[in-house]
Structure formats: C-alpha cells, structure tokens
Amino acid sequence: MIKILENRKIRNLLYRILLYIMGFSLLSSGFIFCLKEQAALYVWLSAVTTGFLILIACYGYFKEQNEMMERAVEQIGEYISGNKDARIECCDEGELYRLFHEVNSLAAILNAHIEKEGKEKEFLRNTISDISHQLKTPLAALNIYNGILQGEVEALPEVWEFVRLSEQELDRIETLVQSLLKISKFDAGTIVMEKALENLSEMMERVRKQFAFRAGQEGKEIILSGDEGIDIVCDRNWLAEAVANIVKNALDHTETGGLVRIEWKQQGTSLQIAVKDNGSGIHPEDLYYIFKRFYRSRYSKDTQGIGLGLPLAKSIIEACGGSISANSELGSGTAFYICIPVC
Question: Are residues 80 and 107 in contact, defined by beta-carbon separation less than 8 angstroms?
C-alpha cells in the first residue's frame, strides 16, 4: 500500500475520491436533517453525482496512464528500430516509473555491450588483417624461391618431389591467408556489396568453367540445370565465390566418376541455388558443425582442407540477405541449398 502511494498521481486520485465521498457524506447528512421529506431523493441525486465525479476522475487517470504507456511503447519501438538514444520519460515516483527507469538502464547497458563488441571485432579484424598482410611478403618470396628450385632440380626426382610438396603447402597457406582476410572483413562489416542485375545462368557457367579443368583431371563432371532467363540483383563476384566454395567442397568429397550438379529455380519471392553431389556424404554428427570455422571432421578423408570454405560461403550468403543449409546421407552424397530473396 505504501509503495502504491509513492506515485503522486495515484495519491491525487485517491485524495479526489476521498474528497468526493466526504462531500457526499456531508451533503447527505444535511439533506437528512434539513429536508426530511425529500431527503431520499436528494441523497440519491448526491450519490449519482458523486459516482459520476469519481468515474470522471478515474477516467482521466487511466487515460493519462494509457497515453504514458503508449509513449513508452513508442520509445521502445524506436530503440528496436535502431535509435540507440531513445529513452522512456520517467520523471516521477512509483512502481511504473521504476520499471521505466530499469528499461532505460537496460538500454544503456545494451549500448555499452554493443560498443564493446564493436571495438573487439574491430581489434580482431585489424589483428588478423595485420598478420595476414605480414605473411604476404614472405609467402611471395618463398614462391619465387620455390620456382627457382624447380628449374634447378628437374634432374633430381627426390628433390623435385619435395619442391612439389612445398609448392602445395605454400598454396594452402596463401588460401588460408586470403580466406582469413575475407572473413575478418565480413565480421567487421567493412564489405560493401556492389549489387547489379545479373543473369544467374551466366554466373553458374562461370563457376563451372572455374573447375572444369580440375574436374576433367579427376574424372568428374559438373552439370548445370536451371532457367537461363532468371536474373538477380546481387554482387556477382561474391555470390559466385560462395557457390564456388561449395562446388570445391563437393569435388573434394567425390571419387573418380563423381557428379556435381548446380541447380537453380525461383520460388515465389526467393531464389534457390542447390549444389548436389554423389560423394561420400557428411557424418550425421558433423552436419551441425560444417559451417564452423576450422572444423575438421574425424571421419573426413580430406587432409588438404583448412575448414574455411563453407564458413566463408555462409558469411557471403548472409551478407546478401540469404541463408544456407545442407542435407546429407552418408555414402550417398550431400546437397547444399542457398536461398536468396529476390528484390
């Protein structure tokens, strides 16, 4: 009861109701003593008037409370929409104003966490970027040295094999550095998508040609299937890279004679791109983790992967406003589904 009375507006309402009741009591007493014959009528009229006044007072109070709640909801909506400075006015006492104050405090705490997280991401991005750039110079030098060695040891089969293996490892390191740079940029939100109207069939043909030589060398086939007239507003290079990473993953996990299909179709307001293979499939306990960075399955036979291709593809697709998922049956193949809204 004491906490309720801390609210000035509730106190004023109770005082007004009490005043009306006291006025009614005094008037009723006067009518009873002065107008005995018509006292009942006047007491009844006084009761109706008093009840009407109390209703008006309560209506005014609850109307004001409702307007205050609407303003609070409006400010909360502003905050959710992105206005981090939106606050609920709470310049009075009472439980409701204490609630508003706590909501404002929560907003301030969330702002502090967002700012801290932003600084941490920026620090991480800068750190990874610095390390990656520092690695580029020695990598370039090592590639040059490796190329010189290849020309010098052609007549020495054992040394030639070591040089060939070192070239493979240098390529892996360079791929890792480039992937880390791209992912760090997506994390920091510094990637700007340069969107334009693109023909999807032409993009997928570009991806197929990118892997055509490798597929031919390994006795595999990449097949395209979809409506050639579908156009999409997107960043051509980034979307093609996302699909290429998935195709590369499919080729890595299919045997000689394997088949990789790239299919696309429009479904209402969204576009679906599917990359399917008939390879080894993904173990059920790994399916949940395939988009985690550096995740390597203990069941995988792939010893060359670095565990960044699929996470990078996911970052690109999400930056495009889409989503990616996978279905797989062990020993029968895997299907990745990219869903992008059509503007």
Answer: no
Which residues, including other chains, have CB under 8 Å from residue 280's CB and lie 6 or more apart?
A: 253, 254, 255, 301, 330, 331
Nearest to 309 by CA among 129, 175, 219: 175
Q: Which residues pair with residue 270 across a beta bridge?
A: 267, 341
Q: What is residue 274's predicted lDDT score, i.e. its pLDDT? A: 93
Question: Phi/psi of residue 180, each to 5°?
Answer: -60, -40
In angstroms, the CA 257 to CA 169 distance is: 27
pTM: 0.59
Mean pLDDT within 16-38: 79
**pLDDT tens, residue by residue, 189-220:** 767 788 888 899 999 999 999 899 989 999 99
Beta strands in 143-269 (DSSP E): 196-199, 221-226, 231-234, 259-267
For 300, phi and psi rounded to 5 degrees? -75, 140
Alpha carbons 152 and 172: distance in angstroms, whole number? 23
Q: What share of the chain is helix, strand, coil (3-state, %, to 5)?
A: 60, 15, 25
Angle between helices 236-252 and 309-319 (to 10 degrees): 150
Q: Which of 311, 329, 166, 173 is nearest to 253 (CA)?
A: 329
Closest CA to 209 of 256, 244, 245: 244
Q: What type of residue sits at position 263? A: E
305 pLDDT band, cuts 50/70/90, is low
Which pair of structure tokens corresponds to residue 195? 């969107």
pLDDT at residue 28, rounded to an integer? 79
Tens-digit pLDDT profile for residues 229-269: 888 888 888 999 999 999 998 898 888 888 999 999 988 88
CA distance 268 to 224: 21
What strand order describes the sheet that includes 270-277? 221-226, 259-267, 270-277, 333-341, 323-329
Residues 6+ apart with CB under 8 A from 272: 264, 265, 266, 337, 338, 339
Helix, strand or coil for residue 277? strand
3-state secondary structure of 218: coil
